[in-house]
Amino acid sequence: MVIVSDPLANVDKEKTDILMYCTGGIRCDVYSAILRQRGFQNLYTLKGGVSHYLEKEGPMEWIGNLFVFDSRLSLPPSTYKTEAVSETSGAHQVSEGSTFARCYICNSQLHELRHRNCANLDCNLLFLCCTQCLKDLRGCCCLDCTSAPRLRPVLPGHQRYKKWYIYRDMELQTNSTA
Q: Does 101 lie in the same domain as 62?
């Protein structure tokens, strides 16, 4: 059995303000109820979540994309307010000298903030990387993963991986015709 320490164990439940925000507000509703049951009193949420905020306010000053919990991984802010499409087609360009995000592999500054999963299905690490490391490591997060037995192909652009069986079935078809 793994025992995980409670990060909120020593937090003053009466005096600590907690601001919660999530994509659509649903997870915040669930977790704020749990925190209230645990005695926390000063809980605040972003009504309707970040997606609602983006619909109402637009992506002004928004850096990066909005993380979502499906195969898309992240969406540009323009998804929520279509008239606010930027000239970079939804990929916010980070200003020169900014240390907002760095490549997980080489630590270079990223100019595009886009989440990726490791091409090694058994790793599947979610990470940010530069285009050079993406190319050099064929979509993997490290050199070890490049020699893994269950590798997905490197996907061009911002495509997302499909379920493993699709790649497995394509490989089986290729091997049976060879």
A: no
Q: Are 14 and 57 in a shared domain?
A: yes
Enzyme catalytic residues: 22
Question: Are 106 and 78 found together in one domain?
Answer: no
112 in any annotated domain: yes
pTM over 0.85: no
Query: For 80-97, how does the pLDDT look when each residue is reduced to its tens digit (9 = 90+)?
Result: 766 644 444 444 455 555
Contact, 116 vs 156, CB < 8 A? no
